[in-house]
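REVIEWER CHECKLIST
Item 1: Sequence provided? yes
Item 2: Single chain? yes
Item 3: Sequence as submitted:
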Amino acid sequence: MQHFKTLSAYLEYLELPRPEHPMISVFTAMGDGFLPCPKASSPPITNDCYTISFKKFVTGELSYGRTKYDFTNGALFFIAPRQVLQWNDAAVFEQKGFSINFHEDFLKGTELAHQIKKYGFFSYSANEALHLSPKEEKQIEAIVQSIDMEYQNNQDEFSKDIILSQLSTLFKYANRFYERQFINRKELSNNLLEQFNQKLEEYFDSGKLQENGIPSIEQMAESLSVSQRYLSDTLKKETGKTSTEHLQLYLIDEAKNKLLDPNKSVAEVAYALGFEYPPYFSRLFKKKEGISPTEYREKYSMN
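Item 4: Structure as written out by the authors:
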């Protein structure tokens, strides 16, 4: 897989204009004109850059993997360094919006270098983009116009700090808008939780638990065609529990049924549930239920 260590090399590969600064590039087309169009398709690639991109397609559509996306209303993407990128079937299209790319070293030694790691939207995949309302779009555009103005000016000792401050503001607004999107997509959240539980049930019923052990959250997210971070954030917003907590609760519910079998020891129940080490199962059970598996079995027997 091809990897690009510099911003200039990455933009050259995309067949886009060279950046005004070796660490950051800004392309905007929010009024007249259109954004420069990158090469039509690409095999999987990676790079050392962050990308914030807002796209409104006037003509044409873009395909990521097996899904085609309609960006008539506009969508905001956040891509972190070393995420795998691939696109195909991209007909010649005209697009409005903006694209900001900056090398991870642009943040070195700054407060934003620590802050940016807290924003979950940099872990989301393309089909989990932020869809902006017209009002939100205007707010983001105003910030980007300020960044672009500073980028296009003759840069001085203040330029970097000003751009970083504006980027930080953009991320804070995006975080607010994602919160809104999670609330508005409650029906989708419920559906994702149902699918999550259904996938777990299928995994248990298939016998893979004994063969392959407890599925990872990464495996669960992949089976649901969403990113690991998005799955956890969505379930957290809807239920107050992360995907890991939901997986653990499912295991505990299964354990309760199995513990009712007097012919199975606690260790056998643990192994049957995919735990490699029975003591870990016992600790998890007590943490979630307040009593040990043995105490649970005894308590149930008394009722």
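Item 5: Key structural point noted by reviewer: Residues 63-71 have pLDDT under 50 and may be disordered.
Item 6: Recommendation: ____
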